[in-house]
Structure formats: C-alpha cells, structure tokens
Design brief:
Radius of gyration: 16 Å
Catalytic activity: (6S)-5-formyl-5,6,7,8-tetrahydrofolate + ATP = (6R)-5,10-methenyltetrahydrofolate + ADP + phosphate
CATH class: Alpha Beta
Order of helices and strands: HHEHEEEEEEEHEEE
CATH superfamily: NagB/RpiA/CoA transferase-like
Structural class: alpha/beta
Distance between the termini: 31 Å
Number of domains: 1
Enzyme class: ligase
Strand content: 15-25%
GO molecular function, one term: 5-formyltetrahydrofolate cyclo-ligase activity
Helix content: 25-40%
Number of strands: 11
InterPro entries: FTHF_cligase (IPR002698), FTHF_cligase-like_sf (IPR024185), NagB/RpiA_transferase-like (IPR037171)
Number of helices: 4
Keywords: ATP-binding, Ligase, Magnesium, Metal-binding, Nucleotide-binding
Length: about 180
C-alpha cells in the first residue's frame, strides 16, 4: 500500500500541472470575485500573499482591501514554526523572503482574522493541498485556538481535485474563491 506522503506527492504534482496550465491562460481579472467576497469583511485584519511562480494573484483585492483596513502578508521565520504576518500597504518597500516571496522591508507584525491562502489543489470538502511545509496548517491551528479565523483558499478553478488526501494536522478551508465561483464549506 502507498503511504500518505506518496499520495500527497502525486496529488501535488497533478495540482501543479493544472495550476500552471490555468496560469498560462489567465486573463488578469481573476481577483474580481475575491474583492467582492472581501467587501463583506471591510476593516477586518486580512492576510493575503505576494504571488510566486504560477499562483493566482490576489494583489488587486489586497490593494482594494487596504483602503478599508489592515492587510498583511505571511513571513516565514523558520521551518516548523507558524507564520508571522507583517503589515503591507500598496507601494510599500519590499524585500525578498524565503522561497522568493516578497515581504515588507520593515517588519510590523499583526494578527489577521482572515487568511487568503495560496494552494496547489483543493476539494469540495474544504481540503487544501499546499507545498508540504505545514506552515498554514500550524498557523491556522494556533489562530483558531484564540478566536474564529476565516481561511479562504484562492485558486484557479482548474486546481480543484476530488477527495484530496488529508491527515489530522491538515486545517480545513472555510471557503475557496476561484476566478469563476465562491465555494463555502
């Protein structure tokens, strides 16, 4: 029998391929639905991410949200630790963080209540397959232990998979927003 890490690796490889194809066909209007969802949470501290490689880009939604409340981006401090979140504003000075993601040049850490998370694949049960480092799982577990925290996956519709493999440490998504629909769990 194949172990869970091999199953996840195969699902991750397939997800990366679907994401790359969707990214190549993008229209640059993909964040419109994300902006409309976030409009219902104006002023709530929000984390999003600076897209790398073929990730769907939340920047237009981040810029809009920043006019109404605090926006931050994840900062990896070390392997095995939860993420920290540094305040981001449109046009702020940036520096390269781990894995090539841009982060604010000056650290100003805040705690978000809504996390827009990148992913490799998602399913209709709220499952999320990330890069395999467990950063968002550890972070969501810690934040949810303190207060309700909304986890919104942002992905191309093509990244959907059937019944992703999961383990007890995997934190579920509350919602997925794609370029074509909003899926709530």
């Amino acid at each position: 029998m194949t172990d869970l890490s091999q199953i996840k690796a195969a699902a991750r490889k397939a997800g990366f391929a679907r994401r790359a194809a969707a990214h190549a066909a993008r229209t640059h209007g993909e964040a419109a639905l994300l902006s409309s969802v976030l409009a219902g949470y104006r002023g709530v501290p929000l984390s999003a991410y600076m897209a790398i490689r073929s990730e769907i880009d939340p920047l237009p939604a981040m810029q809009e949200a920043a006019a109404h409340g605090p926006v931050c981006v994840p900062v990896i401090k070390a392997a095995g630790l939860p993420l920290k979140f540094s305040r981001w504003t449109p046009g702020c000075a940036l520096r390269e963080g781990p894995f090539g993601a841009m982060i604010p040049a000056e650290d100003d850490f805040i705690e978000p209540e809504i996390l827009i998370v990148p992913l490799v694949a998602f399913d209709r049960q709220g499952g999320r397959l990330g890069y395999g480092g467990g950063f968002y799982d550890r972070t969501l577990e810690a934040l949810r232990a303190k207060r309700p925290t909304l986890a919104v996956g942002f992905a191309y519709a093509a990244q959907e998979a059937d019944n992703l493999p999961s383990e007890p440490t995997d934190q579920p998504l509350d919602m997925v927003v794609t370029e074509t629909e909003v899926i709530s769990f």
